[in-house]
């Protein structure tokens, strides 16, 4: 069955450093991959979309890579700030279906 | 008011009660979704509506009954729920239901449901 794995352990990093979150998937050939941010008690908020034919996407301090051979996406936050502390979800879609398949998310904590 | 609004934000109900969750989107989108989010689990897609027509019922128990009277409103009617149904229920919308465009989903802040 289709499966997405995100590091279930929380990631703690020092302010100013680059945070790198990983999303691995199996048994799926997605047409695109999305990253969302979710704060406690709130719904997920869309951040970035990357398609299968794109290697990298950037938006301000955010960078996403997509390696369809490794079946992996990396999500980077450069110059991290305490306000970046949240849970980050990856979601896969396409491949002939309109369903989005979400990972469990990785909780990031940026220490001041 | 903009975005996706869900009411109530919190709901406590007994197993024999009947209640409804409401979702309203002010984005002009044609597709709406219900998700269930439980601790330590990924979001589970429950229902998908496109222009008020249900296009997906993801093997959800019949004690959950969706209703989409128009493209801006979505309801989830609840009856005879079980304790394992306690979770955060999220509503989302997107411009349309599409297989390849990767349109982002806009989520509400959810209803935290607790079944006694």
Kindly list the characteristics that best describe this protein.
heterodimer, A: 112 residues, mainly beta, six-stranded mixed beta sheet, B: 116 residues, seven-stranded mixed beta sheet, four-stranded antiparallel beta sheet
Structural notes for this entry:
The complex is a heterodimer of chains A (112) and B (116). Chain A has strands spanning 3-6, 11-14, 19-26, 32-38, 45-51, 56-59, 62-67, 72-77, 86-94, 97-102, 106-111. Chain A is an all-beta fold. In chain A, the strands form two sheets. In chain A, strands 2, 4, 5, 9, 10 and 11 form a six-stranded mixed β-sheet that branches. A five-stranded antiparallel β-sheet of chain A has the order 1-3-8-7-6, with no helix packed on it. Chain B has 116 residues and is mostly beta strands. Chain B is 0% helix and 55% strand. Chain B has no helices and eleven strands. Chain B has strands spanning 4-7, 10-13, 18-25, 31-37, 44-50, 53-57, 64-70, 73-79, 87-94, 106-107, 111-115. In chain B, the strands form two sheets. In chain B, strands 2, 4, 5, 6, 9, 10 and 11 form a seven-stranded mixed β-sheet that branches.
SSE map:
The complex is a heterodimer of chains A (112) and B (116).
Chain A: E1 3-6, E2 11-14, E3 19-26, E4 32-38, E5 45-51, E6 56-59, E7 62-67, E8 72-77, E9 86-94, E10 97-102, E11 106-111
Chain B: E1 4-7, E2 10-13, E3 18-25, E4 31-37, E5 44-50, E6 53-57, E7 64-70, E8 73-79, E9 87-94, E10 106-107, E11 111-115
Parallel strand pairs in B: 2-11
Antiparallel strand pairs in B: 1-3, 3-8, 4-5, 4-9, 5-6, 7-8, 9-10, 9-11
- Helix and strand pattern of chain B: EEEEEEEEEEE
Largest sheet of chain A: 6 strands, mixed
Strand coverage percent of chain B: over 45%
Instruction: Measure the end-to-end span of chain B.
Output: 33 Å
Structural class of chain B: mainly beta
Largest sheet of chain B: 7 strands, mixed
**How many individual β-strands of chain A?**
11
Give the quaternary arrangement of the chains: heterodimer
What is the terminal-to-terminal distance of chain A?
Answer: 41 Å
Spans of chain A of at least 5 consecutive residues whose pLDDT stays below 50 are none
Q: Count of DSSP helices of chain B?
A: 0
Which overall shape of chain A is indicated by the principal axes computed on the Cα atoms?
globular
Give the helix tally of chain A: 0
- Low-confidence runs of at least 5 consecutive residues of chain B: none
- Please state the CA-atom Rg of chain A, rounded to the nearest Å: 13 Å
Identify the most extensive interface between protein chains.
A-B, 29 and 25 residues
* Rg for CA atoms of chain B: 13 Å
Order of helices and strands of chain A: EEEEEEEEEEE
What fraction, in percent, of the residue positions of chain B are helical? under 10%
